Amino acid sequence: MRFSALTVVRAGAAVLLSAAMNVAGPIRADEKLDVVRDVTYATRGEQDLRADIYVPRGDGPFPGVLMVHGGGWMSGAKWHMARHALTMAENGYTVVSIQYRLAPLDKFPAQIEDCKEAVRWMRRNAETYKIDPSRIAGYGYSAGGHLVCLLGVTDAAAGLEGLAAEEKDAPSTRLQAVVAGGAPCNFEYIPAESNALAFFLGGSRREKPEAYRLASPTSFVSKDDPPVFFFHGEDDQLVPRISPEALIKQLHGVGVRTEMYVVPGKGHITAFLDEQARLKALKFLDDVLKHGVGNNGADRSLAE
Fold it and tell me: Which helix (H) or strand (E) holds 220?
């Protein structure tokens, strides 16, 4: 990944995503769904972390989707993912769209710890929200794409669970599929003296090498990782395509199913809004979670 692209992500991604969603106009659920807003899934200090939950009508259980917003790890909101959430929920997925702790007030690994807690919460509350706990995907864009990739490739051995000792028997955070759009996937190529990501990772790579390693999904690839669908703007100037391509190469190398849709002529924000990208992501999740096509990740033990 180019250093200059990450600098731009830090400085402007949150503003651009907000502007893009404002242009997109209001979004409403239809008669196929029940939407429950601002449900607390965790509390950190005095901050309640909340989720919007989109539940298909019908008996279920339905595959679950954890939806994670972008915004450069420093801003953004769960409603930014509403169009993506509705597409999935209207087609038979219970979607849990979360907020999470943001930098610079809360630095890494707070963000991935919150995502992992959200997966545990989904499994604890599976019956209430008609979720099949054995079929849960992560879905995110930009910083959210990074977080769901990291969530998909890490297990307890990575040390990112955020669990107190008395909670070691908590539900698994394993995913069975990942959808990642515009996702940065490797921070270990940032110039060693650069402070561009200090707001998120606590210092330069020279000062905090372990944080940069732990934050990079490319550090954790293994053959039992879940299938991943990437989508990326052909003209994305914020997150170069080489970043997810590096992760794809590693996943291919260990036999994990991956797909990538390059959105023709689109940049970082316009790829986020692209309808074809959403529909291709939906087809991928249907293949993996509903039809079991190429889903090595779905067979992983949830007890791990």
Answer: none
Between the CA of residue 149 and those of 85, 119, 202, what are the distances in Å?
18, 14, 21
Please state, in angstroms and rounded to a whole number, the distance separating the CA atoms of residues 181 and 241.
10
**Euclidean distance between CA atoms 138 and 294, whole angstroms:** 17
Q: Which of 273, 271, 188 is nearest to 230 (CA)?
A: 271
Per-residue tens of pLDDT for the chain, all 304 residues: 443 434 444 444 544 555 444 444 445 556 789 999 999 999 999 999 999 999 999 999 999 999 999 999 999 999 999 999 999 999 999 999 999 999 999 999 999 999 999 999 999 999 999 999 999 999 999 999 999 999 999 999 999 999 865 677 899 999 999 999 999 999 988 999 999 999 999 999 999 999 999 999 999 999 999 999 999 999 999 999 999 999 999 999 999 999 999 999 999 999 999 999 999 999 999 999 999 987 554 444 343 3
Local structure of 268: helix, strand or coil:
helix
Residue 263: what residue type?
V
Q: Which two tokens stand for residue 178?
A: 């990942």
Report which secondary-structure segment, H or E, holds 136.
strand 131-141
Distance CA 91, CA 84 (A): 11
Output the pTM of the full model: 0.91
Q: How many residues does the chain have?
A: 304
